[in-house]
Design a protein that fits this description.
The complex is a heterodimer of chains A (about 425) and B (about 250). Chain A has about 425 residues and is an alpha/beta fold. Chain A has 17 helices and nine strands. Chain A folds into three domains: about 230 residues, Rossmann fold (3-Layer(aba) Sandwich); about 80 residues, Ubiquitin-like (UB roll); about 100 residues, NADH-ubiquinone oxidoreductase 51kDa subunit, iron-sulphur binding domain (de novo design (two linked rop proteins), Up-down Bundle), CATH 1.20.1440. In chain A, about 40% of the residues lie in helices and about 10% in strands. Chain B has about 250 residues and is an alpha+beta fold. Chain B has eight helices and five strands. In chain B, α1 runs antiparallel to α2, α1 packs across α3 and α2 packs antiparallel against α3. Classes of the chains: A alpha/beta (about 425), B alpha+beta (about 250). Chains A and B meet through α5, α7, β3, β5 and β6 of A and α2, α5, α7 and α8 of B. The complex binds flavin mononucleotide, iron/sulfur cluster and FE2/S2 (inorganic) cluster. The site of FE2/S2 (inorganic) cluster (FES) has 10 residues of chain B, from α5.
Chain lengths: ~425, ~250
């Protein structure tokens, strides 16, 4: 059994000047790079495969297997693209990682690019995080000066150019094929698949796209070995991951633990629910993963068990809401987000999210009848699985799940002629005595 | 509120709009080319190039679009189509300090809605508008409702020129904009002193300033789990416990 928390990526976050190359190397940083460069590229891929690492960006695809799909006989250059767009509501792990320890990511990039034989890599970071962008740029410069980047890295014969590329505000650019279009200087709209990026990605060349945390996990796997990594976690969800708790807990924050920890354990570590309040609903992995309730406190937070509970592990973005929160208001606000962020490429999503906002806004104001709830579910049905990309599936997740668990609360809006909750009660600066 | 139409060649009276002419100067043209040259295919430079246009011109101008189009051998319509897709690109000037209040669900519930409403009242301007410059103000402030900015563990969150202003209250947000308008030096809660929007856009375009070493490694919420593990001696397997309690935020 591992300890309840296993800080690997977060371990150096509080260290003095942790973002600098001196601090990073002083605590063992870039040792994994030397080790990797002494291995064959295929052995590096094999180590990542054997570790059981699955993508940390939401979908959980096995990382080593993804790397193995790169056709090495393809004459085009290979590219590595890091998805640092972190915009899924609730998700807040990659940003502090890049702020506190950009070199963890950069070391991962160099090892991963070596493994897939890419001579060009990009970190696509969302544009709205100025200081993170600064730290990344600064760290890349340090890595060049140290000879970790550039031509013939430490005599290995491997070259790598790394560019930090800032986006410009569009949630959809986190979707990997939209990200590629955006990185090519276009509107960020998803591409038809196949061909998959592994075959025809950036500039129609073989491309690996991985989440920040996935790539940042690679140095630890190389340094300590795949067995070390897979000794943590559960049967099919190996290793550690960063769990982000936000909302109505006493001490929100980042908790790095083996996959399979439960929400009950995490809330306890976060000092419990805020003063005297009770858990009402939560997202396991961002707003695109259907909500769960206090029935699910003991669900192991791994890919399989959360799916079995009817949601998705996603990005381990645990947004916690107590009984003062109106679930209809929460759902409407998320739906407005998806409507705003729909890229407009396909009709079910572009029109559907617009209609969903109309319908939910009416319900929230207490207008309509119970039959309108079924209209909403019907609209969801016409969107789910019928749209071009997963944004639309994510949009219906909070709606269908909130109606599943809180149908009565929707109806209470109708009988009450509006929201029965006092929004002031759910704020952090709630006046004393305010209640739901 | 101070409505500013995107009319060409019209000098705004605000601090952020010092250029009477919208011509892109040679230095900027050179830097735009430099951005394009960072990529295997130059069109990839378009997003950072548009950020640089905003830094040089205070917004996306027709001249900026044309210059990018010329450098990348695209039509103005193609560049325009990209510029209008992304929310960070502004067709109207913003303030010297552009304040975003997160109103995505989690922040909204935790107080973001109230903060936005109070701030909007206080500034007398709405979403995507710039507050009127008053007698004695040394800087202008604009307001935007923003989506989740990946800082939910610091909710309710505001951003100023895309720097984190964590754990806001209606009062702290009002004090913040008052200080900004009065020209006081304000620091991000997890970063350096705030720079102007145009200076920020230059960094986002890829031209680093010298502020990377300012600010802490991490804010307190980022360290909650790590600190508990240290107190209790919890580690990943085979990684010796670090007994030093060093660093910030402890
Ligand atoms: C609408 C949408 C937004 C996404 N946003 C992100 C994101 O911000 N960061 C991320 O890593 N993955 C995001 N993804 C998932 C990516 O498409 C992709 O699966 C992931 O980057 C692959 O990396 P991984 O295998 O390392 O997880 C998003 C997917 C969708 C459909
Ligand atoms: S589902 Fe939505 S975001 Fe995805 S391609 Fe269609 S319109 Fe765009
Ligand atoms: S919801 Fe406001 S920062 Fe995430």
């Amino acid at each position: 059994m591992s300890d309840m928390l296993t800080p690997v990526l977060t371990d150096n976050w509080g260290d003095e000047r942790s973002w600098t190359i001196e601090a990073y190397e002083a605590q063992g940083g870039y040792r994994a790079l030397s080790k990797a460069l002494a291995m064959s590229q295929d052995d590096v891929i094999a180590a990542v495969k054997d570790s059981g690492l699955r993508g940390r960006g939401g979908a959980g695809f096995p990382t080593g297997m993804k790397w193995g799909f790169i056709p090495q006989d393809n004459p085009n250059p290979k590219y590595l693209v890091v998805n640092a767009d972190e915009s899924e509501p609730g998700t807040c792990k990659d940003i502090p990682l890049m702020m506190a320890s950009p070199h963890t990511l950069i070391e991962g990039v160099i090892i991963s690019a070596y493994a897939i034989r890419a001579n060009h890599a990009f970190i696509y970071v969302r544009g709205e995080v100025l200081h993170v962008i600064r730290r990344l740029q600064h760290a890349v410069k340090e890595a060049y000066l140290a000879g970790h980047l550039g031509k013939n890295i430490h005599g290995s014969g491997h070259d790598l150019e790394l560019v930090v590329h800032a986006g410009a505000g569009a949630y959809i650019c986190g979707e990997e094929t939209a990200l590629l279009d955006s990185l090519e200087g276009r509107r960020g709209q998803p591409r038809l698949r196949p061909p998959f990026p592994a075959v025809a990605g950036l500039y129609a060349s073989p491309t690996v796209i991985n989440n920040v945390e996935s790539i940042a996990s690679v140095p630890s796997i190389i340094e300590h070995g795949p067995d070390w990594f897979s000794s943590m976690g559960t049967e099919r969800s190996k290793g550690y991951g960063i769990f982000s708790l936000s909302g109505h807990v006493t001490n929100p924050g980042q908790f790095e633990a083996p996959l399979g920890i439960t929400l009950r354990e995490l809330i306890d570590l976060a000092g419990g629910m805020r003063n005297g309040h009770k858990l009402k609903f939560w997202t396991p992995g961002g707003s695109s993963t259907g909500i769960l309730t206090d029935e699910h406190l003991d669900v192991p937070l791994d890919f399989e068990a959360v799916a079995e509970a009817g949601s998705m592990l996603g990005t381990r973005a645990l947004q916690i809401f107590d009984e003062t929160t109106c679930v209809v208001r929460a759902t409407l606000r998320w739906t407005e987000f998806y409507k705003h962020e729909s890229c407009g490429k396909c009709t079910p999503c572009r029109e559907g999210t617009w209609w969903l906002v109309q319908s939910l806004a009416k319900l929230e104001k207490g207008e309509g009848t119970e039959a309108d709830l079924d209209v909403v579910l019907d609209q969801c049905d016409n969107i789910l699985g019928r749209s071009f990309c997963a944004l639309a599936d994510g949009a219906v997740g909070p709606i269908t799940s909130s109606i599943q668990y809180f149908r009565d609360e929707y109806i209470a809006h109708l009988t009450h002629g509006g929201c029965p909750h006092d929004p002031a009660a759910s704020t952090l600066f709630a006046p004393a005595g305010a209640s739901a | 509120m101070n409505p500013t139409e995107p009319s060409e060649g019209r000098a705004s009276d605000r601090g952020v709009q010092k250029h009477v002419l919208n011509r892109i100067d040679d230095k900027t043209v050179g830097e735009l080319r430099e951005i394009a040259a960072r990529y295997p295919h130059k069109r990839s430079g378009l997003l950072p190039m548009l950020h640089l246009v905003q830094s040089a011109q205070g917004r996306i101008t027709p001249e900026g679009i044309e210059t990018c189009a010329e450098i990348l051998e695209l039509t103005s319509a193609e560049v325009s189509g990209v510029a209008t897709f992304y929310t960070m690109y502004k067709r109207r000037p913003v303030g010297d300090f552009h304040v975003g209040v997160c109103v995505n669900t989690l922040c909204a519930v935790m107080g973001g809605d109230e903060i936005y409403d109070r701030l909007s009242e206080h500034l007398g301007c709405g979403n995507d508008e710039t507050a009127e410059r008053r007698e004695g103000d040394t800087a202008t402030v604009s307001l935007e409702r923003i989506e989740c900015n990946a800082a939910c563990d610091y909710a309710p969150v505001a951003m100023v020129n895309w720097e984190f202003m964590d754990n806001q209250t209606p009062q702290s947000a009002k004090d913040l904009v008052d200080d900004l308008r009065a020209g006081k030096e304000v620091h991000s809660t997890r970063g350096p002193r705030l720079v102007t929007w145009r200076e920020a856009e230059r960094v986002i375009a890829g031209f680093n300033d010298d502020l990377a070493n300012e600010g802490p490694s991490a804010g307190p919420a980022s360290l909650v789990g790590r600190n508990i593990a240290r107190e209790r001696g919890w580690t990943a397997p085979g990684v010796p416990a670090s007994n030093e309690q060093k660093g910030e935020g402890e």
